[in-house]
């Protein structure tokens, strides 16, 4: 069996928080935010919408796209650092709401690399023939842990969810290689302390630039592929300067990398699947394209996959 993507879906809340809105709330400027991060606006969930609500909407779209029924799901994995509550997991909440009564369910905590961790975990079950239909979701309501008094972090994050159904695909397609990694010694640079997210931006920046480039090169090598063969790069959307560094390591032109951070900010585990959906809908990704998905996050964690798109 070779695991691949059977369908994708995403959801972001309606409410937009622009940089000029933030200028009214704290000592910052649109110029600073755009030039340092590439972010212009982000989506903010309402008080009534928790992470599971965002996750559910993305899941419904992914199931429809894959033409898979909820009862056919074998496993639900939700990557999130902002669950509705510590338990039951968001995955169990989704299992109940979808009526996915045959699915096991659990959350994965790997911060912004969470979606990649989820896809790689799902891949193991599919490749061994254990499961055939796995729902992987990245979902975050980061604005509930943002410290609105801290301009260093408050301007960066947004809310949203993205999902994929992982299952067996035809030969030559699907996940060709992957890498997961962690360095707990760097945990102190990005964590939730008390009720809020705390970050040493410069340290995370240095780590991210190095790791994103290394991981892209590693997964290409593992798959026996070259940089020239890459059709599209989907990096975790944390900062355009970090993303450009990864793109330059792969020697890709600007139009071959997904940039959605301008409209969504950093949505942590959701950013990669939301970007995948948006690029697919825009027609920038076609069947048989070679994609590289790469992320990094608090933990510290990282992960990358090469993927031949299509069923
Ligand atoms: O998903 C993973 C999560 N995190 C990341 O990927 C973040 C990685 N790090 C970054 O993206 C960047 O480090 C930041 C965007 C967070 C910051 O950019 P930077 O170029 O590293 O800026 P800096 O931290 O060196 O700060 C430069 C200046 C400081 O002023 P002084 O000390 O030089 O006077 C900050 O106080 O910018 C100031 N500053 C701001 N000014 C206006 C920090 N935040 C703001 C702000 N508005 N929002």
From TrEMBL:
Highest taxon of source: Bacteria
Domain comment quoted from the record: The last Arg residue of the ACP-binding site is essential for the weak association between ACP/AcpP and FabH.
Pathway as given in its UniProt record: Lipid metabolism; fatty acid biosynthesis
Subcellular location as annotated: Cytoplasm
InterPro entries, per database record: ACP_syn_III_C, ACP_syn_III_N, FabH, Thiolase-like
Job description of the protein: Catalyzes the condensation reaction of fatty acid synthesis by the addition to an acyl acceptor of two carbons from malonyl-ACP. Catalyzes the first condensation reaction which initiates fatty acid synthesis and may therefore play a role in governing the total rate of fatty acid production. Possesses both acetoacetyl-ACP synthase and acetyl transacylase activities. Its substrate specificity determines the biosynthesis of branched-chain and/or straight-chain of fatty acids.
Protein name according to UniProt: Beta-ketoacyl-[acyl-carrier-protein] synthase III
MF terms (GO), sorted A to Z: 3-oxoacyl-[acyl-carrier-protein] synthase activity; beta-ketoacyl-acyl-carrier-protein synthase III activity
GO terms of biological process kind: fatty acid biosynthetic process
GO cellular component: cytoplasm
Residues of the Beta-ketoacyl-[acyl-carrier-protein] synthase III N-terminal domain: 106-184
Family: Belongs to the thiolase-like superfamily. FabH family.
EC top class named in words: transferase
Gene3D superfamilies for the chain: 3.40.47.10
EC number in record: 2.3.1.180
Region feature ACP-binding, mapped onto this chain: 237-241
Catalytic residues (positions): 112, 236, 266
